[in-house]
Each structure stands twice: as C-alpha cells, then as structure tokens.
Design brief:
The chain is α+β, with helices and mostly antiparallel strands. It is built from twelve helices and 16 strands. Strands 1, 2, 3, 4, 5, 6, 14, 15 and 16 form a nine-stranded mixed beta sheet that branches. It is elongated. 48% of the residues are buried. The protein binds zinc ion. Zinc ion binds next to loops.
C-alpha cells in the first residue's frame, strides 16, 4: 500500500498552531522568543514526544525532534522551517514546513515504516528577524554565517537581550550550535509570490535562491527658494532621484534572466513645499540568480548615478551594505523533489526563491532543497495569508516522498 500523508491532520495542526498568538484578522503575531513562541514550542515538543521522537535544542534554541532510523551511524535527513512569525504574519509562512515534518513522522509511524536514516524535524529560532535583527539567526549561526555571541547579545527595540529571552522561555539548550551534522535538509514553504497560482502549478521545485544586493544612495544638491531660484540654476536632489528611480526600474528590463530592481525608500530634505530639495536618501535593491548579472547591474547602477548626478549638478554617494550571493541547491536533493512531484502527478515547475529562507544558510553545511506550494494571491507577511488544504497536502506528500527517495526507501 502506498504511503500517504494525512493532510486533514496536517491541516488541523496548522489550525491549532494558528490559535497560539492569533490576531483579530485571522493571522498570527508570534515574535521570536515571546511567550507565544514559548507556547507553540511547548505544544510542538509535546506532539513530537508523543510520536516517540527525542527532542533536543541547542544554545540558540534551534529545536531538533529526532525519529530514529535503522542505522544510527547515518546523519539525519532533516525537515524544517520556523514557527515564529511577523507581528502581522500569516498562519503558513514557516509553520507549514515544521508541521509537515511532524506529519511526516506521524505518517511513518502509522505505516510502521523504518527508514535507514534518522529523520529530524527542525524549528529554527527567529527566522523572521522582526523582533531581533537580522533574520534567519538560528540557521545562520548553525551554518557558521553569523556570530553566535553577536546574536545572543543582540537586543530588541525594548532593549531585551536575545540570550536572556531565550533563557526566560526555557529553550536555551546546552548543545553547541552547528555541532550537529545533517545528511540533508528539505524545507517546504509557501511561495510568497504569485507565480505558481498564476500558472496553476501545485508544486514549485526550488532549484536555488536569487542573489540580492542592497545599497544606500545619498544625493546632495542645494536647498533654495522655490519662488526665486530659476529652473536652470537649481541643484534639485529630488529631480535627480526621480530620474534614477525610473532608470533603475528600466535597468531590470535590460538584463536577461529575471532581474529585479526596487527603490523602496525615498526621503527628501528638508521636505518643505517651497524649498528646492537639497538632499535625498534612497535605497536600491538588486536581485538576480547569476553573480555575473549582479555585477553588471551594479556597474550600470553606478553609471546611472554618475550620469544623472552630473546632469543635475548634485553629488551622489552609493554604498553597498549587503551582498547575499545566489544559492544553487544540491542537485541530488532537487532531483529527489522533482522525481517525487512527477511520481505523485502534481503539476510542477522549477523556480528560484525570491525571498530568503533558513534553507539558504543550511545549504552551506548540508545538501539542501526546497518545495514551494502556491499561496492565495501570492500574498505573505500578511494576516490574510492563505493556502488551500489540497496544496498543503500535495506539498507534504512531495516532501515525504522526496525524503524517502533520499533514504532510498523502496516506495
Ligand atoms: Zn518563512
């Protein structure tokens, strides 16, 4: 008999999780290391123990629930994501990936399946970065990309310290973060974008994550009287900014392979209706799957800034403050997901993730792949975030079968 996940049970778990930190509009507010985070962790740990899992957590509070395999000399095949949310977050972002892991364990137990590898379900601490910045702290330290001490001592806006809050909710473990080898890592997540829904695909086989670069740009002109300064004598920082915004937007269309460019912040000074703006602070966000393309986009951005500034006689200072290189997930793990989607007859497409995920960091230390399912209207980080029971079931099934392929289980 083929092994099937119980998608109703998984759906009920998502509903149950949705009661811990529920907001009035049907979303969740479950900030990392808050009382709500404690409650969902306690609930999750109890559910895992009830399935016979051994639960441990490391010094960053990353939580590992382990179902033993036939061979204890093999590292675990891990499944995970995060149970924390944005302050006005949805019920699926992150939660789906963790609870699908729990459902997978339950399914294996129901069918008496013994895997070769141990199976581990992971809840990574503070993926969202909403309360303590930056994001993806648990998986970042695990992968050696972030400094443990810096994270443990970082503070939220109320001045509370990460390490103390972790202690307070009772999830500061003794295990050294990162000293925990994994055979492989699979993360199921909602797409958080509109592509799968628009193409009526149930499954996204995620082959990697696009690279991102963030810039601050400051333009300096000269403040002057709006009624007395002739147009040709102005050094108007806002006009230069406007031309840069349009040029940056058009830049995306000139680069092959799905370039994305965004100017998300624009602040003009002194921000007074009868003063020619002297200064503009703005941000630029460039994304692409290829590092060479990002290099070309950056070069072009510099040219746009230089040319526009000289035309308007303003000065421009461009600083790159973040560079997250593109990630290619592991060929074998991706192939397992693809094969699983094909076997289960779910319409799928290969795609890149536009957003960051714990899988980005974990892929540095373990063979990794991700599975996406559609979310309604592509909307996420929003209380109205939604997905259908059918897609949730399809995603969990593809996850299960991919894990069994990785384990070389004869199903
Ligand atoms: Zn997430």
């Amino acid at each position: 008999m083929p092994i099937e996940v119980n998608s109703t049970r998984l759906w009920d778990d998502i509903a149950e999780s949705g009661r811990i930190g529920a907001t009035e509009k049907g979303g969740l507010c479950r900030l990392a290391l808050s009382d709500e985070d404690r409650r969902v962790r306690e609930w999750f740990v109890e559910a895992c123990r009830a399935e016979g899992c051994e639960v441990c957590f490391d010094e960053l509070g990353n939580l590992f629930a382990r179902r033993p395999g036939r061979r204890s000399d093999l590292h675990p095949i891990a499944i995970g994501s995060h149970l924390d949310t944005q302050p006005t977050g949805g019920r699926f972002d992150g939660i789906l990936g963790v609870l699908a892991g729990l459902e997978l364990v339950r399914t294996l137990n129901d069918h008496g399946v013994e895997t070769e590898h141990p199976i581990e379900v992971i809840d990574w601490t503070n993926e969202e970065g909403a309360r303590f910045a930056p994001a993806m702290q648990g998986s970042g330290v695990f992968a050696g990309a972030l400094e443990k001490e810096a994270i443990l001592s970082c503070r939220d806006r109320a001045g509370r310290v990460f390490g103390e809050e972790l202690e307070r909710i009772g999830f500061r473990g003794a295990d050294v973060c990162g000293d925990h080898p994994l055979d492989s890592y699979f993360e199921l997540h909602i797409e958080q974008g509109p592509v799968l829904e628009e193409e009526k695909k149930a499954i996204g086989v995620v082959v990697g994550v696009q690279g991102m670069r963030w810039y601050d740009l400051t333009l300096e002109g000269c403040a002057s009287h709006a009624g007395t300064t002739p147009m040709k004598l102005r050094r108007d920082a806002s006009v230069a900014a406007a031309e840069i915004i349009v040029a940056v937007n058009r830049l995306a269309g000139k680069v092959d392979g799905g370039a994305l460019t965004t100017t998300g912040v624009i602040d003009a000074y002194p921000n007074s209706r009868n003063v020619v703006p002297s200064r503009v602070f703005m941000t630029v966000d460039l994304r692409h799957a290829e590092i060479e393309a990002l290099d070309r986009m950056e070069q072009r951005l510099k040219e746009i800034v230089a040319t526009t500034c000289s035309q308007h006689q303003v000065s421009g200072t461009l600083d790159r403050l973040w560079d997250s290189p593109p990630v290619r997930f592991d060929d074998e793990c991706v192939a397992a997901v693809r094969e699983s989607a094909r076997k289960e007859n779910h319409p799928f497409r290969e795609m890149l993730s536009g957003a960051g995920h714990d899988a980005v960091y974990v892929s540095r230390v373990a063979p990794t792949a991700m599975i996406f399912i559609p979310c309604e209207g592509g909307i996420s980080h929003n209380e109205i975030e939604s997905a259908t029971p059918e897609h949730v079931g399809a995603g969990a099934t593809v996850l299960l079968k991919a894990v069994l392929i990785r384990d070389r289980h004869p199903d």
